[in-house]
Design goal:
Helices cover about 35% and strands about 15% of the residues. The protein has a six-stranded parallel β-sheet, with helices on both faces. Helix 3 packs parallel to helix 4.
């Protein structure tokens, strides 16, 4: 029997709490082992995703990578930090789950692609729309031929966000010129 994968979450507050809520029952069931949480602020309590005993809590991702040696790293930090953190995690042999956007430019995307190939690791990007019931309905309709001949596809989407969505992290919401310097 193989041991469950060792998982760490970098950016454990804000949106990282939603990943902790998904990870908590998987950890409890022994399907994965949460080994570390990283955040520059104290890790917030979450009754749905409590920090299990023995899970390391760090403020520096490099210290965590050296100490915990996770096999999978979830990166939920501000977007401008993704590439550097991903490179560090890949250097330790971890696979990645990156929140969107995974990187900020085509050049960074190419660098990430190269780093993944060089490390022999994989990455997944968390896009909530891919889990949408609308995508499944569209795929089913296309497969069943209910839409006729498709000559092009385009989408428009709007998500209503309550104020607490933008308050979850100081960098969430409309970009401001000073947000990169102040956070993370």
């Amino acid at each position: 029997m193989t041991s469950p994968p060792r998982v760490a979450v970098i950016g454990a507050n804000g949106h990282g709490r939603s990943h902790r809520r998904v990870i908590a029952p998987l950890h409890a069931a022994g399907r994965l082992r949460l080994v570390a949480l990283v955040d520059v602020r104290p890790v917030e309590d979450d009754p749905v995703a409590p920090v299990p005993p023995g899970v390391g809590v760090f403020t520096d991702h490099r210290a965590m990578l050296a100490a915990a040696r996770p096999e999978v790293v979830v990166i939920c930090t501000p977007p401008h930090t993704h590439l550097a953190i991903a490179r560090d995690a890949l250097a330790t042999g971890a696979d990645l789950l990156l929140e969107k956007p995974p990187v900020l430019s085509l050049a960074e995307h190419e660098e990430l692609t190269w780093a993944l190939a060089a490390a022999g690791r994989v990455a997944q990007v968390g896009f909530q729309a891919l889990g949408s019931a609308a995508l499944t309905a569209l795929t089913d309709a296309l497969a069943a031929g209910r839409l006729g001949t498709v000559t092009g596809i385009s989408t428009v989407a709007a998500w209503q966000r309550p104020d607490d969505y933008y308050a979850r992290s100081p960098w969430a919401g409309p970009p401001r010129s000073s947000w990169r310097a102040r956070w993370w």
